[in-house]
Amino acid sequence: MVAKIIVVMSPKGGVGKTTTAVNLATAISDLNKKTLLIDANLETPHVAVYYGFVGFKYSLEDVLNEKAKIQEAIYTGDNPDFHLLPSRVIKSSQDKSMHKLIKINIFLEELKDKYDFIIIDSKPSYDIGFIKLIKGANSLIISNPDITSMIEAKKLKEELDIAGIKIIGLVVNKVNSRIKEQMTEKEIKEMTGLSNIWKIREDSKVYNALKQGIPLVISSQKSIAARDIINIAKQIIKI
Ligand SMILES: Nc1ncnc2c1ncn2[C@@H]1O[C@H](COP(=O)(O)OP(=O)(O)O)[C@@H](O)[C@H]1O
Ligand SMILES: [Mg+2]
């Protein structure tokens, strides 16, 4: 087995990258695919919070700083198919720079054979330097159905195209059919030139899940956003 590596990306913050990465990784592992979720957003790492996972001993930073071995920083829970490599919220004075991420490809090479999917949450950026470090990585772009998010998503798409990095799709998150002003799928397709477009509807249950520290696709499987994400997971495992 060679893992499909998916980096969840967006130039803008707050669009739903972490929500998507967490729930997609959880949903894919629930489909019996061995999945590793990595929090590579060293500046504002929140993935562990979505699992109510606090007080872990080692994190991605410790691996990058050679204070821990990779296996010591990978955790599992009830589902043996789901593994998490978290980052730690650190004090603002500490070194948050991404330069150490250069080493990520070394241990990803080591992990590739152990998983079906490796999902990576990243910080908001146009900078495709990070994904370029990862051999064979695919990108999943997250955006919202408004013009400014979509302008940024389009710019990111163009950067990724130039670099020859595969885009598996565009997730349009926080879709609300009652807001008529939101961009339609047709408009998004025309604007971005992307054809694989998935939507996740706006859903207050997303906040409940975060509060509980249980991913939405587990805590509220029947909620509209969970159904959308599970649907995306089912399609992604077939790509
Ligand atoms: N589909 C959704 N419906 C409602 N709220 C959402 C949805 N997706 C994300 N959110 C909320 O939007 C905020 C930003 O989401 P987050 O995943 O942290 O974004 P990012 O990682 O891109 O900064 C969070 O408060 C999250 O709970
Ligand atoms: Mg985030």
What is the domain total for the residues? 1
Total count of helical runs of at least 4 residues: 10
What is the structural class? alpha/beta
Task: Report strand order across the widest sheet.
Answer: 3-4-2-5-1-6-7-8
What is the number of strand segments?
8
Strand content: 15-25%
Textual characterization of the structure:
The protein is an alpha/beta fold and 239 residues long. It has one domain: Rossmann fold (3-Layer(aba) Sandwich). The protein has ten helices and eight strands. An eight-stranded mixed sheet has the order 3-4-2-5-1-6-7-8, sandwiched between helices. Helix 1 (17-30) packs across helix 10 (224-236). The two termini are 15 Å apart. The relative contact order is 0.20. Bound molecules: adenosine-5'-diphosphate (ADP) and magnesium ion (MG). Residues 17-18, 41, 46 line the site of magnesium ion (MG). The site of adenosine-5'-diphosphate has 17 residues, from helix 1, strand 7 and helix 8.
Kindly summarize this structure in a few lines:
By secondary structure, the protein is an alpha/beta fold. Helices cover 36% and strands 18% of the residues.
Topology:
Blueprint: E1 4-9, H1 17-30, E2 35-39, H2 47-50, H3 60-64, E3 75-76, E4 82-85, H4 104-111, E5 117-121, H5 129-133, E6 138-143, H6 147-163, E7 167-175, H7 185-192, E8 197-201, H8 205-212, H9 216-219, H10 224-236
Parallel strand pairs: 1-5, 1-6, 2-4, 2-5, 6-7, 7-8
Antiparallel strand pairs: 3-4
Helix pairs in contact: 1-10
The protein binds adenosine-5'-diphosphate (ADP) and magnesium ion (MG).
Magnesium ion (MG) binds at residues 17-18, 41, 46.
